[in-house]
Specification:
The structure is a single chain. The chain is of the alpha/beta class. The chain has helices at 2-12, 23-29, 38-46, 73-76, 95-98, 106-109, 126-135, 155-168, 193-212, 255-265, 281-289, 319-332, 350-362, 379-387, 401-404, 419-422, 446-462, 470-490, 496-506; strands at 56-59, 62-66, 83-85, 88-90, 180-187, 221-223, 233-235, 240-247, 270-272, 294-295, 312-313, 340-345, 368-373, 394-398, 415-418, 437-441, 533-537, 545-547. It has a seven-stranded mixed sheet, sandwiched between helices. Strands 8-5-9-10-11 form a five-stranded parallel sheet. It has a two-stranded antiparallel ribbon with strand order 1-2. Strand 17 and strand 18 form a beta hairpin. The longest helix has 21 residues, at 470-490. The protein is globular and about 80 Å long.
């Protein structure tokens, strides 16, 4: 009865494989969009069955696991395209690879190359796939790897799961043609003009240089180890990179709709870099709702719950991470501070950091007073505000350089300063404030990063790119380099989720990491640099800083 229901599902979806309708023919005529059942997504990604109970995965030689730990995506990844880890090969399980055409057919040769695909086996049918999931036997009836658990799914859950595997294999990918890859970069109207100019200079030069390389299959052959028709030369073609600059206008409430209209008119494979004002929320919503990969935006206040996303990757948690570093230091202090005053300007990103710090310290019994200045308040207003702070109270300052330079007379009590807003070691902190001030420092120490940044300086100099906003420009160059390296690993498997997964797999191996001591990403991680230092100035007027303790990951 269960197999008959599966057959009906696949007939409706045009994916029924029978002797009379071989997989090769089926692959050619399938052009409709296959609906993706929500129950299948919940089972595959979160390990939740259709009745709300936990999915259970069983192996003969190991305790059963359930729920999220049993979800298929843990091994086969969100994309369904699997992975290769040491000698463990996790094969792709999207419909195109499970129900692949015979390997001596032209359709098989058109499948995107994946080093972990096992196309030398018989194609699965709905019946043999259900058997594989329940009993651990492959399409030929042979035992699957011990890594593959057994799942005792009822008919409805099996249908939902197979429906999701069917929908995972896209028939086309936005922004990808046989000759071009389309990318966008986004600029909001409140972005810093110098950061915008510097970012665009870098990204345009990088794309121009990328496109100057030879393209075509002539001298770029990559031999696979497959047999039959799959023993073809895999042509890794250097496609033309096309850049679309999406400059937004008007209030933030309209940005998401503007982006959707831009994407509809100019479909892109991914969004790269970009510069933004204080509110990144509409951009994030666009990336996740579409979805489209959004890679390493230059943003000071990414959402602190970004690890719950999938399609947006950041270099760091920005001012939210600064708040966590300061909160961790104060919560661990002995004795704890009697009170903390967090100072910021209305409308700037320091406000969200101050609120986050207050919530952290409230949990350990330390009161935080939020002392804000209006966006247009004068220097005198800042000094007047500081004069009211009780002697000995701890200060946390999220202020820009123009405010830091006007802090006025020195005061007693510990001071914590935002490196992001202050400009790191270039912060114009008055000499009288330096002894008691520690700066949250989310980048590598100057001597440690010098060689890596010398590469960026040289790259800009050769291309005559003015260094008008060097941190933004260096991060943009780093983002372009990461994308370029990842595209090489992708070869011709241009699937959005697979691009993100390849970044996860390869990022930690990069030697050039720009400002950051180390970049790593794992599943459910979207912030590549996860910690920071506290530093202090060593001299009254120089920009030399030294660490106060080790790198901290709060």
């Amino acid at each position: 009865m269960g197999l008959r229901r599966l057959q009906r599902l696949w007939l409706i979806s045009l994916w029924l494989i029978t002797a009379a309708a071989p997989a090769a023919q089926l692959h050619r005529r399938t052009t409709t969009v296959i609906p993706d059942p929500p129950a299948g997504i919940a089972l595959y990604e979160r390990g939740v069955l259709s009745d709300g109970s936990a999915l259970v995965a069983e192996r003969a030689d190991a305790p059963a696991v359930q729920g999220a730990s049993a979800a298929c995506s843990n091994c086969h990844r969100k994309s369904g395209l699997g992975s290769v880890e040491a000698r463990n090969i996790i094969p792709p399980i999207t419909a195109g690879y499970l129900f692949h055409p015979p390997q001596d057919s032209e359709d098989a040769a058109r499948l995107a190359y994946l080093p972990n695909s096992r196309l030398d086996r018989d194609a699965y049918t709905p019946e043999t796939l259900a058997r594989a999931i329940r009993e651990g036997k492959d399409s030929r009836g042979q035992p699957l790897s011990y890594l593959m658990p057994r799942y005792d799914l009822n008919d409805a859950d099996m249908e939902a799961l197979i429906g999701h595997l069917n929908a995972l294999h896209p028939r086309s990918v936005p922004g990808v043609t046989s000759e071009e890859l389309h990318f966008a970069t986004i600029v909001t109207p409140d972005a810093d003009p110098l950061a915008k100019a510097g970012m665009l200079d870098v990204i345009r030069n990088f794309f121009d240089e990328k496109n100057a390389a030879p393209r075509g299959a002539g001298s770029q052959k990559m031999q696979t180890t497959a047999k039959g028709a799959l023993a073809k030369h895999m042509f890794k073609v250097n496609r033309l990179w096309v850049l679309h600059v999406w400059e937004l206008t008007g209030p933030a409430s309209t940005w998401q709709q503007q982006l959707k209209e831009r994407f509809d008119a100019e479909p892109v494979f991914a969004v790269l870099s970009g510069v933004f004002g204080p509110d990144y929320t509409p951009i994030r919503a666009f990336c996740e709702a579409l979805p489209v990969p959004c890679l390493f935006p230059n943003v000071d206040n990414p959402p602190n719950d970004g690890d719950n996303e999938f399609h947006t990757i950041y270099f760091s948690r920005g001012v939210g991470l600064e708040a966590d570093l300061i909160g961790h230091a104060l919560a661990e202090a002995t004795p704890k501070p009697a009170s903390v005053v967090a100072v910021y300007r209305d409308g700037d990103v320091g406000e969200s950091a101050a609120v986050r710090l207050a919530a952290t310290l409230k949990a350990v019994g330390v009161p935080v007073h939020l002392a804000h200045l209006s966006a247009r308040a004068s220097d005198h207003a800042l000094r007047a505000l500081l004069a009211k702070v009780p002697a000995g109270a701890t200060l946390a300052l999220w202020l820009r350089p123009q405010d830091i330079a006007q802090l006025g007379p020195a005061r007693t009590g510990p001071v914590y300063l935002s490196g992001i807003l202050g400009g790191y070691e270039d912060a114009p902190l008055p000499a009288a404030w330096r002894a008691q001030t520690q700066m949250a420092y989310l980048i590598d120490l100057p001597l440690n990063r010098r060689v890596r940044l010398d590469y960026a300086h040289g790259w800009f100099r050769v291309r005559k790119i003015p260094e008008v906003s060097f941190k933004v420009q260096a991060d943009t160059l780093l983002a372009c380099g990461i994308l370029s390296e990842t595209i090489k690993h992708v070869i011709d498997a241009f699937f959005a989720d697979y691009l993100l997964e390849r970044i996860e797999d390869t990022l930690e191996h990069r030697l050039l990491t720009g400002y950051y001591p180390r970049l790593t990403l794992g599943p459910h991680q979207r912030f590549a640099s996860k910690g920071g230092y506290f530093v202090r100035f060593t001299e009254p007027k120089s920009s030399v800083v030294e660490p106060v303790g080790d790198w901290i990951v709060p």
